[in-house]
Write a structure and sequence with these properties.
Radius of gyration of chain B: 21 Å
CATH architecture of chain A: 3-Layer(aba) Sandwich
Helix content of chain A: 25-40%
Strand order of the largest sheet of chain A: 6-9-10-3-11-12
Number of strands of chain A: 12
Number of helices of chain A: 8
Structural class of chain B: alpha/beta
Number of domains of chain A: 1
Radius of gyration of chain A: 18 Å
Strand content of chain A: 25-35%
Order of helices and strands of chain B: HHEEEEHHEEEEEEEEEEEEEEEEEHHH
CATH class of chain A: Alpha Beta
Helix content of chain B: 10-25%
Order of helices and strands of chain A: EEEHEEHEEHHEHEHEEEHH
Shape of chain A: globular
Largest interface: A-B, 31 and 22 residues
Distance between the termini of chain B: 46 Å
Largest sheet of chain B: 11 strands, mixed
Number of strands of chain B: 21
Shape of chain B: globular
Oligomer: heterodimer
């Protein structure tokens, strides 16, 4: 079907001779929200990083196609320009790099890729103010260095803010909820939901350990990941079931089969 | 005596002899006698070798391989590419030195209370050198001795008591094309009287590409409560260029002195800064930013002599080293017995962009007072791979991401430039220098 945005087939990935993803399959359609749940060490974040284009991982087999193009052939920056965005689990602090400059460079790199002229400083500064308001991000943060001295919640909110600004087709949220209190979590989720409302064709891959976030961002599909593979998929109710019965339940069922 | 000293000595002997022959009865004048005694000092010491602890990491041997002649005056040099200046004409006083000679028709420093004299003027009038010119930088230092021996001209700026210059002074020091290896000897003396203020931007650039030696000395006398701010922008070619520089400053009570060195060019560069804090409550800032690639070698060598109590000094030297380039930082802080309540901070940070680039960092503290605060720190690192991935994952290309992080690293030094035109000019040169290094193997970077 042509409305697939992401197709992962039999993906095997290792780092320093340890295999982490052991034949992973996943398809995401346009406008769909998929959640991947799993315990620590199951390979969730590896998946996010491989999709984001981190170079330390070695893909030993399988394929990833993004809107029909070979994603694994692209550098991190090409993926972003084509419309993949990853919200980091641990956003990096960039002392001395002002957010406004950082974002304008990113924004214009993407525009250039699309054959559009760069946006002027003033016009851009209006745009980021508007987006910041939308996401309840303190405007004062925009005058600071990227993530420097930000609280955990501010960092995560800044990720969602960048996501809103760069307008990707596929948004990957790598444990955006970890370390957030319930208020910060709600703000982040609200931001994501607003993006969905604005553009229902956007797709999301939400990687999380906990079910909590999925109360606020309701997924279409939930996948359980164990030991580098998706072992079970279902609707949003799977997340609740998992919350109730724990990951061992899935493991035991696997063994029973 | 080692071979290299002899080699250079034979070159220097013949050049000094021809310099003396051209004097036409001026050999007894004070300016020349000062040169002569400097030459004697130099003859005794020769050029330093790596046996000298202060020259452990910088080898001047390649300098001895060439037969330099002193660059000549270019009296008909009347036009200059305005792009060479860092500051717009209406925002600065401009002074031009060509091959070390003061160029009267390209220069202008017209403000009441500011006097400008030249070495040649003093020589030709058989007069003495003003104030403490040639007496602040010590000829016990071989590269000061060398420069003082061969100096052909020089600039003496004097600022009267309580006079604040309306605009910064941009001193553009150029050397011209020649078929043979040349040496130029730009010399600067700045004397700021009590309560006076001056800002000097000293820029070194080239109009030729032959083998060249720039031998530079700058002297600063900063009187009580006066302020001298100095910037040095070294933007000569990356190849065939030797640059040996020395800045000597002496500060009186409650004075401010700062010098910031931005080094982009030069094959073999030595930048020395030596400051004596002679009065209570002085404040000294030494900054440096070096951006090197290819086979460039730069040696930043500082000596801060805290001779009085309640003084503060801040040193921040940063370097970005690509290709096979090498950096050296050696910074000595002396705190004399009387200099209680000294606060001296020194830091040196290096980013290595390739496996082959090197940095040697050598802080030295010599403290004889007991109630002082002295800190020094040195870091050596590579571009942070997590930061690179983060920036690239937002769509920014590899080199733009790299330059963004390098600009942030360098920004800690350049943000201290208060003059906007100058800061933008320096940052522009910085970016140009970085983009010239974009051909280097990107796998070397950020791993």
């Amino acid at each position: 079907m042509s409305d697939k945005i992401l197709e992962i087939k039999d993906l095997k990935v290792g780092i320093e001779e340890t295999e982490i993803l052991k034949g992973l399959n996943l398809e995401i359609g346009k406008g769909e929200v998929h959640a991947i749940m799993g315990v620590n060490g199951s390979g969730k974040s590896t998946l996010a990083n491989v999709l984001g284009g981190r170079e330390e991982y070695e893909v030993t087999s399988g394929s990833v196609s993004f809107l029909g193009k070979d994603l694994l052939e692209m550098d991190a920056e090409e993926r972003a320009r084509e419309g993949v965005f990853m919200a980091f689990q641990y956003p990096v602090e960039l002392p001395g790099v002002l957010i406004s400059y950082f974002l304008r460079t990113a924004y214009n790199s993407i525009r250039e890729h699309r054959g559009e002229p760069p946006m002027k400083v003033r016009e851009f500064s209006e745009l980021i103010k508007e987006k910041a308001k939308l996401l309840e991000l303190d405007e004062a943060l925009l005058k600071r260095s990227v993530n420097e001295g930000f609280s955990g919640g501010e960092k995560k909110r800044n990720e969602i803010f960048q996501m809103a600004l760069l307008n990707p087709k596929l948004c990957i949220l790598d444990e955006t909820d970890s370390g957030l209190d319930i208020d910060a979590l709600q703000v982040a989720a609200k931001g994501v939901n607003r993006l969905r409302e604005e553009d229902p064709s956007k797709s999301f891959l939400i990687i999380t350990h906990y079910q909590r976030l999925l109360n606020y961002i309701v997924p279409d599909h939930v996948h359980v990941m164990i030991d580098g593979q998706i072992v079970r998929s279902g609707g949003k109710e799977l997340a609740l079931e998992l919350e109730e019965k724990g990951y061992n339940w899935v493991r035991e069922e696997m063994i029973a089969q | 005596m080692t071979t290299e000293e002899k080699l250079l000595t034979s070159w220097s002997e013949s050049n000094f002899a021809s310099l003396e022959r051209s004097l036409n009865g001026l050999s007894a004048t004070e300016p020349h006698q000062i040169r002569k005694s400097a030459f004697e000092s130099f003859r005794k010491s020769g050029l330093p070798t790596s046996k000298n602890e202060d020259w452990k990491y910088t080898n001047l041997r390649p300098l001895a391989e060439h037969n330099f002649s002193l660059a000549v005056e270019c009296p008909d040099f009347t036009e200059i590419n305005p792009d060479l200046f860092l500051i717009p004409a209406d925002e600065s006083f401009r002074i031009v030195l060509v091959n070390g000679y003061f160029s009267a028709n390209l220069s202008g420093l017209d403000q009441k209370g500011v006097t400008l004299q030249t070495f040649r003027e003093c020589l030709n009038k058989k007069g003495a050198l003003p104030f403490e010119a040639f007496r602040v930088a010590e000829t016990s230092n071989p590269i000061v001795a060398f420069q003082s021996a061969f100096v052909q001209d020089g600039l003496f700026i004097h600022v009267d008591k309580n006079v604040v210059l309306e605009k910064p002074v941009e001193v553009l020091s150029l050397w011209t094309r020649s078929e043979r290896p040349t040496a130029s000897m730009p010399r600067l003396y700045v004397h700021v009287e009590e309560g006076a203020e001056i800002e000097i931007i000293e820029q070194h650039r080239a109009l030729g590409d032959q083998i060249h030696l720039t031998s530079r000395v700058g002297e600063f006398v900063v009187a009580e409560n006066a302020k001298a701010t100095h910037y040095l922008i070294q933007d000569e070619p990356e190849q065939n260029l030797f640059h040996l520089g020395h800045i000597a400053a002496r500060q009186a009570r409650s004075s401010h002195f700062s010098t910031s060195t931005f080094a982009f060019g030069g094959g073999l560069v030595r930048n020395e800064v030596s400051v004596r804090l002679d009065g209570e409550g002085c404040d000294t800032i030494l900054n440096g930013l070096s951006v090197l690639s290819g086979n460039q070698h730069i040696d930043n060598h500082t000596v801060l002599d805290h001779a009085s109590p309640h003084c503060e000094s801040h040193q921040l030297y940063k370097g970005i080293y690509d290709g096979d380039s090498e950096g050296v930082f050696s910074g000595t802080i002396i705190v004399r017995p009387d200099a209680q309540k000294t606060n001296a901070i020194q830091s040196n940070d290096a980013l290595l962009l390739s496996d082959r680039a090197k940095i040697n960092s050598k802080p030295q503290l010599k403290i004889w007072a007991d109630d002082v605060k002295c800190t020094h720190g040195a870091t050596v690192g590579q571009l942070d791979k997590d930061a690179m991935f983060y920036v690239r994952s937002r769509g920014v290309g590899f080199y733009d991401a790299r330059d963004m992080l390098l600009r942030a690293f360098a920004g800690a030094v350049s943000k201290n430039i208060k003059n906007t035109s100058l800061r933008e000019g320096v940052e522009h040169r910085f970016v140009e220098k970085l983009s010239s290094g974009r051909t280097s193997d990107r796998r070397q970077i950020a791993k």
